[in-house]
Amino acid sequence: MKNNLVKIKFTPVRILAIGFGLIILSGAMLLTLPIASALGEKTPFIDALFMSASAVCVTGLTTLDTGVYWSYFGKTVIIVLIQIGGLGFMSFATLIAVMLGKKITLRERLVMQEAMSSFGLQGLIKLARYIIIFTFVIEGIGATLLATRFIPEFGFKKGVYYSIFHAIAAFCNSGVDLLGDFKSLMPYYDDITIILTISALIIVGGLGFPVWHEIYVNKRLKRMSLHSKVALLTTVTIIVLGTILIFLFEYNNLGTMGSMNIKDKLLSSFFSSVSLRTAGYSSISVRDMTMAGIFLTTILMFIGGSPGSTAGGIKTTTLATILFTIVSFIKGKDDTEILKKRVAKDSVHKAFIVSILGFILVTVVTMILSLTEKGVSFQYLLYEATSAFGTTGLTLGLTTELSFIGKCIILITMYLGRLGPIMVVLSVARNTKANPIKYPEDKILIG
Length: 447
Hints:
Blueprint: H1 2-7, H2 12-31, H3 45-56, H4 66-69, H5 72-87, H6 89-99, H7 106-116, H8 124-154, H9 156-171, H10 192-207, H11 209-218, H12 226-250, H13 262-278, H14 291-303, H15 316-330, E1 337-338, E2 341-342, H16 345-372, H17 378-389, H18 404-419, H19 421-428
Antiparallel strand pairs: 1-2
InterPro entries: Cat_transpt, TrkH
Organism: Clostridium intestinale DSM 6191
Protein name: Trk system potassium uptake protein TrkH
């Protein structure tokens, strides 16, 4: 036993996995304190743990009404957890280390590389600084714009607090709101300032820090790496297609957009395409969407944002790699080609593995929930499982009704979704050396 414990190595991915777990546990302990609830009551540990996991994993699923149940202390703990979870605790740790004049070791750089989805170790400290500065600037701009609407409605202090809270939550792609009664942003469906500001924050946060760093450095699309080009083009394509499809699916639906004018329908369709994929804010009633709209939303949640971002899912570049691999195969090409570039086999393999593992996780979670949540329709269960995996935060109303076991399952799913399928596998797998033996090749009938 002792020898086995000694052999366990704290690899970068394991450090990240443990780090996220410790932050979630610390947040839960703070949220259980009586001072964290509005009524001064001690919060049940499972609900505090669920809220902490949802915040750190920037998901937004909640078993308690965030705007009503928690005190300002509790809300502040939640938004700090969201900020740490969105940026990654390694970014904060790096910032503190640099401020204290501490030298960043090779091991710490390896952990940072995993956390930031960087291709190499060079320039990681500068990238970490850029991430922190960029985040605070964008969130500051967003909070200022939201304040023009929230201060007149809630007063100066409350308006400023609400503006900062929602700016951080939107940038970190967490659908947590303080409006109460689980209304999300439905009261502001026709407010262009709020809807477009939140949309912009979600898009910026969901594109990924490596992409924005390249935009800042290179300025022009032609000079950017293949990764940034694919992330940008895929994101734009998904947003446009999502907007068109949601507009068509919900146009006459009185439960969502049927009674709106054409301007508000377009605004709600755009916001839904942006937010329902990664953030979880909604300007229409999600549970009242058509079956086609709900199914489309489930697909968007599974895709998620881009690598190195505050969003979850299998990621946009993963989807693009799989689609272009299929196209290349149909054309009879041996390699996956995107924008006149050949994609490395390793990247292609990862794309399929991430998608398959994600699909398996959602399937298993849905099956388990079907056993623990009696009388709940399959549609609600699949939606909840996909939302937790994609760290989106959308629900058809099931989250508050979950059993104890159901809460534990969704909590674990949020954690696994935030880490990502590949990182989870690597964190639990033993270190293996390359096998020098190559076995004879044979064929299997496919299809």
